[in-house]
Write a structure and sequence with these properties.
Layout: H1 3-13, E1 26-28, E2 32-36, H2 47-59, E3 63-65, H3 96-107, E4 112-115, H4 123-135, E5 138-141, E6 149-151
Helix pairs in contact: 3-4
The structure holds zinc ion.
Length: about 150
C-alpha cells in the first residue's frame, strides 16, 4: 500500500475526506449504491428526494438501494425508540431499531452511498455516514452527483 493510499484511508476513517481516491470521479456500472438521508419528520418520509436520487443513480447505470424499498419485516417485538412523524404522531408500524437494523444490513451490501440534503440532521443517516466511512464505502454527497459518472 503506497503512502497516498494509506493517508487517504486514515483520513477517511477519521471522517476528514470523502471515501474517494483523488481523480476517480466515476463508479462502475452495476455498482450498488445506498441512498441515505432524513426520513423521520419529513413529508411522506422524504420519499420524493429518495426517489429522485435513486433515478439519478439508475441513469448512471448503478443499482440504487432505497431504504423506502427495504423489507423491514421481522419476527418478535419492535426494538428501539419510537420514530416521530411529521404530524407529531409516531410511526405506527415500526420503531427505530426495526428500520436501522434492516437499513444498515442493506447498506452493507453496497459499495457506495449517496447522502441526501439534510442528512446531518438525521440520527439514522448520521450513523449510516459513520458506518459507511469506517467500512470504506465510496461516499457521494448529494451536491456531487453531477460530477460523478457511470463508468464502464
Ligand atoms: Zn418492528
Amino acid at each position: 500500500m503506497d503512502a497516498d493510499r494509506r493517508n487517504y484511508l486514515e483520513n477517511s476513517v477519521m471522517g476528514t475526506v470523502p471515501n474517494r481516491l483523488p481523480g476517480s470521479h466515476y463508479l462502475a456500472k452495476g455498482t450498488r449504491v445506498y441512498i441515505a438521508g432524513p426520513i423521520a419528520r419529513k413529508p411522506n418520509g422524504n420519499r420524493q428526494a429518495f426517489g429522485l436520487f435513486a433515478d439519478a443513480a439508475r441513469e448512471r447505470g448503478w443499482e440504487p438501494v432505497n431504504p423506502h424499498e427495504v423489507d423491514h419485516g421481522h419476527s418478535g417485538e419492535c426494538t428501539g425508540a419510537e420514530v416521530p412523524r411529521m404530524d407529531g404522531d409516531f410511526d405506527s408500524i415500526h420503531k427505530y431499531g426495526c428500520y436501522m437494523r434492516a437499513d444498515i444490513k442493506a447498506m452493507l451490501t453496497c459499495e457506495a452511498a449517496i447522502f441526501l440534503p439534510g442528512w446531518p440532521t438525521s440520527a439514522g443517516a448520521s450513523v449510516e455516514r459513520q458506518v459507511a466511512q469506517i467500512c470504506g464505502l465510496t461516499i457521494i454527497e448529494h451536491y456531487e452527483m453531477h460530477e460523478v459518472e457511470g463508468g464502464a
